[in-house]
Amino acid sequence: MKYIRYAILAAIAVVLISVALANRQIVELALLPEGLAEIAGMNFSVSLPLYMVIFAGIGLGLLIGFLWEWRREHKHRVEMRRQSREAHKLKREVKKLKGEKHGQDDVLALLD
Fold first, then answer.
1. Domain map of the chain by residue range?
2. Kind of pairing, strands 45-49 and 26-30?
3. Using CA of residue 100, residue 102, residue 108, residue 112, what is the dihedral sign?
4. From the CA atom positions of the chain, what is the Rg in Å?
5. Which residues are within 8 A (CB) of 42 and not within 5 positions of it... i.e. 6 or more apart?
6. Are 48 and 26 in contact (CB under 8 A)?
7. Which residue intervals define the domain Lipopolysaccharide assembly protein A in the entry (predicted)?
8. DSSP code, position 31
């Protein structure tokens, strides 16, 4: 099983490296379109290789997806913690009641 995982990771690495080598050309990323940048007086742009833009987009999408899912599952985690605390409390109560019951009446303890 470990070898299959390594083979899959190696295949993904080969694909990512081939994408990076095929997209080495420099692209310019601008914050605003040219006309709007002139009006606003903000002409912020950066030049990066295309593969960095692609990988940054994939990484940002994964991060947003993970955060979105973590936030969506928050109510389930809260409910699970509440139920766990309640179950622990009930187990302690049952243990306490069994101890009291067996200590008070030997005839009832024999019937159980």
1. 1-72, 73-112
2. antiparallel
3. positive
4. 31
5. 31, 32
6. yes
7. 45-94
8. S
Q: What is the pTM of this model?
A: 0.63
How many residues does this entry show for the chain?
Answer: 112
Residues with Cβ within 8 Å of 48's Cβ and at least 6 positions away in sequence, in order, are: 26, 27, 29
Tens of pLDDT, residue by residue, the chain (112 residues): 889 999 999 999 999 999 999 999 999 998 888 888 788 888 888 999 999 999 999 999 999 999 999 999 999 999 999 999 999 999 999 888 887 665 556 666 666 5
List the Cα angle 67/70/76 in 5-degree steps: 160
* Contact criterion met (CB below 8 Å) for 34 and 42: no
